[in-house]
Amino acid sequence: MLLLAACDGGGATTPGSAQSLVRVAHFVPDLPDTVPGLDLRVNVAMPAGYARASFGTVTPFVEAPVATTQVSAQFAPSTSADAPLPFALSGRLNLAARTRHTFLLVGLWRGGQADFPGFTVLVSDTAAVATTSTRLTAVHASPGVDGGIDVYLLPPGTMAVPALATPAVGSVGFRTGRSALVSSGSYAVVATRVGDRSVVLARQDPVTFAGGGAATVFLYGLPPGPGVQAARTIALRVTDDR
Predict the structure, then answer these.
(1) Helix (H, G, I), strand (E, B), or coil: what is residue 18?
(2) How many percent of the chain have pLDDT more than 90?
(3) Please, are residues 158 and 125 in contact by the beta-carbon 8 Å criterion?
(4) Which of 28, 45, 65, 147 is the most exposed place for a label (fewest CB within 10 A)?
């Protein structure tokens, strides 16, 4: 059972008046096996939880200045003097104060130009939520799933998506995120391709969403197949973003 009470991928959650919150999600599934992980840096610094990040890591939120924030990655182990990976260097961004940003690193190391890894920046809504609700964000970070995804919240123990079920968050395109307010409580979280309830891509059951909070569901990884390690197949990662 996943109870979103302590922050999984959380960290600082209330930025100062001249600060923004930043985190990094590493969803590049096919880096060489010789790479022990990625060292993730925010303005050259490498906060706790950002070193040797393995595939599927969502780092804690850390504060970053609203002016000229830059996120980068290097093959671990690294030093601050080492050059960042060319595909893992964000622009120098001016972030709005009191906002949360997820730097989503996703793509295929061995893919063509259209699929090559890079950062996508997702900005979180931070408005207050009623104590009976949770702001749920669904993020599609699986390069092996063409088209969009739907995310369903079903009664715990439900294996198949009922024919009349409606997605809690629907039509989420690759490298994007969408949000909706959902009722707090315990659910089976299930992801499918858009409009296709017959095949479950991944599920996590049960997950409890606390009232008045926020959470993100990431779909990441590759479909099972020849040469795909079990640890890199499609999965869901749920973080508490309060």
Answers:
(1) coil
(2) 65
(3) no
(4) 45
Q: What is the residue type of 209? A: F
pLDDT tens digits for 83-126? 999 889 888 888 888 889 999 999 988 766 567 889 999 998 88
Q: In a 3-state reduction of DSSP, which class is residue 196?
A: strand
Question: Residue 63: which residues within 8 A CB-CB, separation 6 or more?
Answer: 12, 15, 16, 19, 20, 21, 22
What values do phi and psi take at 43, rounded to 5?
50, 50
Cα–Cα dist 170/149, whole Å? 7
Cα–Cα distance measured from residue 174 to residue 120, given in angstroms and rounded to the nearest whole number = 10
Q: Is the separation of the CB atoms in 137 and 214 below 8 Å?
A: yes
Tell me: cis bond preceding 77? Omega within 30 of 0 counts. yes
Neighbouring-strand partners of residue 234: none
Say if residue 165 is exposed, middle or buried (CB neighbours under 10 Å; 0-12, 13-18, 19+): middle
- Are 62 and 101 in contact by the 8 Å Cβ rule? The answer is no
- Gap between the terminal Cα atoms of the chain: 19
Look up residue 88 and give its two tokens. 């893992």
Q: Say how far apart CA 190 and CA 169 lie, in whole Å.
A: 11
Give the CA angle between residues 83, 87, 91 to the nearest 5°: 80
Could you read off the pLDDT of 29-78 as tens digits, one per residue? 988 888 899 999 999 999 999 999 999 999 999 998 887 889 999 999 99
DSSP 95: P
Residues facing 92 on adjacent strands: none
